[in-house]
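Appendix B, record 7
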Amino acid sequence: MITLHSLLDNAKCFETVRSLRWPDKVSCPHCDSEAIIKQGKDDSQPERQRYSCKACQRKFDDLTDTIFAGHHQPLKIWVLCLYFMGLNLSNAQIAGELDLNDADVQHMTQQLRTGIVSKGPAMVLEGEVECDEVYVIAGHKGQPGAVKKAA
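Structure tokens (predicted):
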């Protein structure tokens, strides 16, 4: 049986993250310097490039300071989770598709939603803004008069 999980390539996910994160040139997430040296690959994830900044002497990798950093799930699982969220699948359905437990998927979807919201543009109201209020008297069994008398 072929699953979507088996068709997705971790290397392609890392390439995509790199191209989206640094469209022109890799820069240090700590000081924004472009004086960067490649420092080999990660031991557990060979597709994950490590770097060293010449300016601030700090080390980082493709996922440093992203919502994907510091988690034990492979990047392709995160990408699939995001894809399934876009299809409006429930956490239980995502857990079933990715063969994960519900608590892990709950944590992942929460992290992804928080990251998406934090990267969104700040909402700015312009021009004339109006706000109306509505007061509705709810009645018992379609009799608003009964509620009105009690008030």
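Remarks on this record: The two ends are 66 Å apart (CA to CA). Helices lie at 4-7, 10-21, 75-86, 91-98, 102-119, 144-150.
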